[in-house]
Records
---
Amino acid sequence: MHIRYDNFSYAILILTLSFLIFATWFWIYKIKPYLINLKIKKQLQQHSEWRRLEETEQFLIQLYKKTNPYQTSRKECKRMAIKSNEFVYGEISWLSFFTILDKVNPQPYETFYDLGCGSGKAVFTAALFFDLSKACGVELLPALHTLANEQIDKAKSLIKLFDTDFYKSYTKRITQIQFLNENFIDTKLSDADIVFINATCLKPETWQTVINKLLQLQSGSRVIVNTKRIEHEKFTLIHQAKELMSWGMSTISIYKVT
Ligand SMILES: C[S@@+](CC[C@H](N)C(=O)[O-])C[C@H]1O[C@@H](n2cnc3c(N)ncnc32)[C@H](O)[C@@H]1O
């Protein structure tokens, strides 16, 4: 009888702990992001082009509905025997990334780069919400690069289901998207005006190499960095805030190249 009581207490303890862990996970990764997204939406409803923004977000949600970039990344790392934390997967959140990009004021003659683009969500956000001359994603893992490229073909088919005005303006924007399968250390950035790098998991040595590379950017270019900082006289910090990412809130810094 005594032993049964102990086992019962043990079971209750395990259940309570499991529930607490699940509740914390659910709060951090589901409820909190949902509430923050709702707040962003409320603010954007005052935007003069809210209808177009809403329709674009719906399009992007539908475009990525049946994809699982986390699983693709995990399987590819396993296949290629990659153990480095630099390949831990995480993504932007649609409207949050729109508000970040809005702060760098993208222009129709400008080119956007995402260094380490994964399935291409940041590239699609830049290309569809803004008028740019090119939006380019660079990804080292072949399976993620293939997934990103497949999304271009999917987008071309999906756009036909939307109303004609939407179709007309966005077909051109989709053709301006490009994905490169290479190490971003080797990427030529001579035509880059806006560079995004989700640098949270990069090792200090890699980050220093990236900074040296970014020094080649032309004056007036903007760099959007997640988590890491750039301490160099050529880069002026123009904005810093906590923004929503797929794993929660993260510090975004925006620099202008002088
Ligand atoms: C945190 S994810 C960011 C994905 C995307 N930029 C976003 O924010 O939605 C980082 C991506 O960078 C890729 N990556 C890491 N090191 C890389 C390198 N040296 N060259 C190219 N891609 C790299 C990873 O495979 C992963 O897909």
Note: Residues 2-44 form the longest helix (43 residues).
---
Amino acid sequence: MSNYEIFVYGWIAIGFLSFPFILRYDAPYGRHTSNSWGPLVDNKIGWIVMELPALIICPLLVLSSGNPLSDVTIFFIVLWVIHYFNRTVIFPLRIKTKKKKMPLIITVLAFFFNIVNGLVNGIYFGNIKFDYSNSWISSPEFIVGISVFILGFIINNKSDTYLISLRKGKDKGYVLPREGLFKYVSCPNFFGEIIEWLGFAIMTWSVAGLAFFLWTFFNLVPRALSHHKWYKKTFPDYPRERKAVFPFIL
Ligand SMILES: NC(=O)c1ccc[n+]([C@@H]2O[C@H](COP(=O)([O-])OP(=O)(O)OC[C@H]3O[C@@H](n4cnc5c(N)ncnc54)[C@H](OP(=O)(O)O)[C@@H]3O)[C@@H](O)[C@H]2O)c1
């Protein structure tokens, strides 16, 4: 087994081992934020700092590898940069969370998560599989994967945009969401993000994409369950048929 394989399978194993613990706690940011987790930082700055390593490390490793990158490999990295430019720069500028805080520990943990995720993917696409052929784009993996990725990206962004639009003026409270996929699940933004990275894993048919998809699942399914419980407790008229994250399933 190569050093890279030990690294990435170890990272996946840590994900499986962490999942029961992530399920047990409400990650303390956003509506679950709490000052019992130590010092706090500004919410928007926290978002920018914690996502930055992913935006920088993966493309930097790929571009500096010195290997002859194929057009398809470059295309995958462009998708990565589009997603992370949105998450690191555009999303924090759009959210209406002025004066809100998140625990520093969340920023630090997510910062390290994004370093490792950036390394896992950057090393893979820069040094291991940098030569996807042009014919890859007519493979079933690519066609299915890119379709799922685009669908997930649209669902994620439309749902985040809708959530952001719920706050009017100086209001910092929460509103019962009623439109689009919110009729079916409490957290369609997380559903979109999970299937986006499932699509990436399929279209790249890579262990790096698989690791990212699994970690996204491990992070966001527990958060969706926490949000769902919170919505049911907070809004007495919360629609009973609505699921947490996967329509009709969970
Ligand atoms: N790949 C990964 O592992 C990963 C991990 C975490 C997050 N993400 C992505 O990052 C994005 C943000 O995550 P998040 O956990 O912050 O999402 P979230 O809890 O759904 O919140 C998204 C934004 O909408 C606001 N909001 C949510 N529900 C609202 C409501 N009912 N009424 C009014 N405003 C509401 C939130 O404000 P507050 O902040 O004030 O609650 C926040 O600004 C998502 O797209 C998610 O998929 C990805």
Note: Residues 3-234 form one domain.
